[in-house]
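Posting for a labmate who doesn't have an account.
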Amino acid sequence: MSKEIQQQLEAQLSNLWIQNLGSLNQKLKMIQNIASNTADFLDLISDMNNPDIDEITIEISKKLAEWGGIHPEK
């Protein structure tokens, strides 16, 4: 679901009494969970794709050697 739908649901919820919410709060919670899980997943993937800062020079050297930019150290 899109950010626009989430905003519409939030607007609808703000105008309702708690006892009249029905499933709107459940839909909003589902949207928030999806957004949160997506952000967590993307953080995990970005961490997996990036080497630790301590090893960054080694990893850069390896990639440059693969691409023929430099000769690997022996």
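Reply:
Got it, the structure tokens are right above this. DSSP finds three helices and no strands in the chain.
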